[in-house]
Design goal:
The protein is an alpha/beta fold and 224 residues long. The chain has helices at residues 5-13, 23-33, 49-57, 70-79, 115-125, 144-150, 164-173, 193-204, and strands spanning 39-43, 62-67, 84-87, 100-106, 126-137, 176-184, 214-221.
Length: 224
Amino acid sequence: MTLTKREISRGYDAIVSRMGLSPKFYRAAVTMAGAVSGRVLDLGCGVGGLLEQIRSRFPGVSLFGGDISFVLSRETKKKNPAARVFQGDAEALPLHDAVFDCAFMTEVLEHLLDYEKGLSEVYRVLRPGGRVVVTVPNRGWVRYDRFMTERVAFQPVDDHWFTQAELERLVVSAGFQIITIRGWGSLSGRRGILRLVEKLQTALDGSLSLRRKRLMILAEKRRG
């Protein structure tokens, strides 16, 4: 049975302590965006970790954050007092057209009920030439099959793991032009010296990057 948006919101309210990713991940997302200026939107802002990283690297930007969860929105505001934070549905943003220069959807798209609608809303609120960084779980991850036998779902809307082709199709269909796509995170879960060997292999073979746990894509709203 499909949950209502109110049920999804309350579901996230109840798991605030389990939300958020590492600063290293957020730094990678900000780095992928390149030079950030003007108005920046973090859609699905969670507990505000990404906005903290943006503020640290680009102190002059105007920060906005939105999340379907009231509690998560409140936590984001606590960490980022200068940001304008709202509670809202990513598939029906309470925002005007063409008002943002950059947007982020980090680990959000996979939890929407309508991926196309979420991306079209981001497209709508970006200015021509505006950029978006989208990150999702990677169906092509080396350890995907094993991981799926061990994991326990805990979010109201469970992860959808995207293939590279599926993500690219959705982004292009929304009207964006893809700039680059790459993987991030663990390749095989190895540690110690084996992890170092893995990093070297990935550096030598660029295709291995797209077998990591997450996909990161940078795209631009077409001009004119």
